[in-house]
Amino acid sequence: MPVTDVSTDTENLTMTVTADFAAPVERVWSAYSDPRQLERFWGPPGWPATFTAWDHTVGGRANYTMNGPRGEKSSGYWEFLTIEEPRRFAVLDGFADEQGNPNADLPAMRMEFTFESAADGTRMVATSHFVSVEALEQVVEMGMIEGTKMAMSQLDAVLQDLREYAEGKGTRVELLDDTHVRITRLVSGPRELVWRAHHEPDLIRQWMLGPDGWEMTECIATTTVGESYRNSWAPVGDTEGEPFGFEGEVLLIDAPCRAVTTERMQGMPTETLNDLNLYEEDGATLVTVLIEYPDKDTRDMILATGMADGMEESFARLEREVLEPSRS
Fold this sequence. Notes:
Distance between the termini: 39 Å
CATH architecture of the largest domain: 2-Layer Sandwich
CATH class of the largest domain: Alpha Beta
InterPro entries: ASHA1/2-like_C, START-like_dom_sf
Helix content: 25-40%
Oligomer: single chain
Structural class: alpha+beta
Strand content: 35-45%
Mean pLDDT: 93
Radius of gyration: 22 Å
Order of helices and strands: EEHHEEEEEEHHHHEEHHEEEEEEHH
Number of helices: 10
CATH topology of the largest domain: Alpha-D-Glucose-1,6-Bisphosphate, Chain A, domain 4
Protein name: Activator of Hsp90 ATPase homologue 1/2-like C-terminal domain-containing protein
Family: Belongs to the AHA1 family.
CATH superfamily of the largest domain: START domain
Domain Activator of Hsp90 ATPase homologue 1/2-like C-terminal: 23-159, 190-320
Shape: elongated
């Protein structure tokens, strides 16, 4: 992860984030000065940001809204105070309503970002200045430190060419904290088709089978918020195992980019939150699934079942059975 240190200083009323990136200063600067790139990492996983206004000039404003997995929204604004490309910029960062009007009930802060060349790329130091100890403690209690670390863990994928970042690396599992796991897999195909393959029963049945020797016996899919889905599998022939399935409800749909659902094994009360995101670049689509577990023990138990291996076999089948035929 890029973040190497987060420190707070109640005497000087600051919080300082230090991060190292394997990319030159100019590339890191471009990620912070382009709203479309910022949207990929400014919000923490599960809370992606959308910038609705962007005036990248001194005195200009940028408005953004972070969209939570259950439809929650948290909005903010930047007022650009200084811009010294590509080494430094400073903003007044505050909370706002969805129209960008400042929320006076929550603390604003001055944020200074500096970018310096380092042996392996770029060192970024971001210092937030608060008006009082209470304001500093308030944002810390709101989870700003954890949220910043998780948000910036997404930046490596932005700074690199997508194929360089993920091609040939299979299904990757990252433990973000005790209850959040991020799973990524690059597939060679357009986002629109990958979206359809996740939500149309005829396509789902072609690839979402897990290990060889299993068949999908039930597939009820939906892209309507509030409706339920249900998938079931059973062993074929001499394959050992008992039939099983998953079901849940759709919480959020932003086709063809994002779908958030609950998931539980049929007949079991334990539920996870699954946040599917699709990002396309150069004819390839990065599939990212952020899974929120109720606790660490549940997380470890489910990962120990070989879930990631089963997902890799399914993704390989997705490329072979759905995406490759579409190119012929």
